[in-house]
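Q: Focus on the shape:
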Amino acid sequence: MTQRPAQHSSALPPLAALTAPTLSWNDTSPHSDAFDDLYFSREDGRAETEHVFLGANRLPERFAEWQDTRAFVIGETGFGTGLNMLCAWACFEQHAPAHGRLHLLSTEKFPLDREALTRALSAWPSLARYSQVLCALWPDAVSGVHRLHLSERVTLDLHFGDTTERLNLLEGQVDAWFLDGFAPSKNPDMWQPELFEAMAARSRPGATFATFTCAGIVKRGLKAAGFHWKKVPGFGRKREMLAGGIESPTEDVRRSATPWFTPPAHRDAHHVVVIGAGMAGSSVAAALAKRGKQVTVIERDAPGAGASGNRQGALYVKLAVETNHQSRVYLAGLLYSQRWLGQLAAAFPQEPPLWQPCGVLQLALSDKEANRQQRFMANHPLPESVVSAQSDALSSLAGVPVSAAHGLYYPQAGWVQPKTLCEQLLQHPNITLRQGEVSALQQTQQAAKTAQWQVTLAHGETLQADHVVVATASLANQFAQTAELPLQQVRGQVSELTLPEGTQGPEKVVCAGGYVSPAVDNVLTFGASFVPNNATTQVVEEEHQRNIDELRQALPAWVAALEASGVALTPQHLKGRAAVRAASPDKTPYAGPVPNAAAWQRDYAVLSKDASKVPPIIGEHHSGLWISTAHGSRGLASAPLCAEVIASRICDEPLPLEQPLIDHLHPGRRVISALVRAQ
């Protein structure tokens, strides 16, 4: 019997830097001073985890029998030291078939810092190869979702914040729950009815749970939420514990006010066609290939031939003064890209490096911008490891004299070789790259009644695919199915200057009106111009001069010294490259399923008369058609995370962002906003 649906809010909690717990230590065993409780058993924490969570959820047997193409999903209410998750990972590797994948997700309100995490996990040498990966990828203590790729087959999503709040924002379903956390008597705020309701709403039919406690509040809360439970033998001195499951999870009612964002029904994906081999297309292809999908990438020219083909690209964001959904997406994207690029660079070492986390310095060249930055910092209590306000140290950070008195410093950001990155991403054995231009997309019905996509190339050849992802930047709305998505073409030209041997250039990426990166092979790359509604790609001296002017404004003393040394900083002495980016009207990327715009305009027409009258009609989509575009000049911060959004949805696994942010990225948002504005 389906229980009453849990009540949810689509509002995001305030962005916050989370507080590390105050700990006491018995060698490597941490004790929480706030909750007066242990993180794991001093007797044998690993054996306890294996008994309570792995055994009671029957994970060895379930892993061994797993035949589904999607990942097996484990949800946990309290990450702590990560011992439970690492034991689950080790169990999966021991028992699961070669094709199996594991998706771990865990909440944590008081994340340990990396030093404490490393110390705690050092108690388990047998888990060292797992814990070393976790500690190396450990994210900054910022509220939100942090996706970590632990291995080719294992993903961990850390949901930093209050457990119930995080589960209510989760976009995904769970197969097995580790109901952990400090004891109900020590931490009663967590063990509330709302927690069990949130678990029920995020469970798959037949999901199981296990917990060390038999407290009455837990038994009553589980039963009221629809879970069945029984007492089973506990571990060590604890005589009993609880295990059980849920057959009929509660209905997800979060989109009752926005039914158009209801995700399309899942369909199998054996072969996916990705159109475009720039940053957006390459990262989507790589994300799908890693999940075992066969991917054909169709590119008109070559990987990174468009805006992703510059010598250097800066990984940077410019966040709004007031925290909004767009800023939350870009901040999550920045943090994800930093980890993702670090793993890629380690896997594919080269010179010059694929990824250089040298730091990014955003200068405030006016009092207005300085004030904006100060208000931003006041509204964004982020750790200094993510961003800090700077004044006196600007020139020493940049490595050259700067003109500004204020700036923001992102110490883990930096620059990338985007073309090389695209080429590297496409080297996966599950990816086939084909040169060609797609002229049409058509959905066809096969004999088995499974709709497929027919992809027609300009010379007449056709390909069949279960899913198609459109990732062709400013050309992404050229197809009949995507034509209603507004896109703006924005031309951008970068300039290149060969520096004399031994010249000291910027040591960080310096951003102001434009950007300049540290020189590579004595070539300084700077720019880029921003010319809306212009799709030309020839290099022009006028925009070289614009880039020179921006560079001179940001680094006047350094430019003057450069010219005094005999360097001719004129358009005629510069090389460059121009490309066309794509932007949406609200400057947020499109990442998700493609809506059937005609159906939306028909079904939701009443919104143009009264936006409060929401028809209870689920939004119709072009089943199996997806889009990732409108990344503008910040694609390195948005495209990789958007690729995970699309790949996760195609593969029916939890998503790497909170549900309101997933909806914020939905391509259909512009159809709805046009209706509301009665356009």
Q: What stands out?
A: The chain has 19 helices and 32 strands. Residues 1-9 have pLDDT under 50 and may be disordered. The chain has three domains: 23-246, 259-306+420-487+585-676, 360-411+488-583.
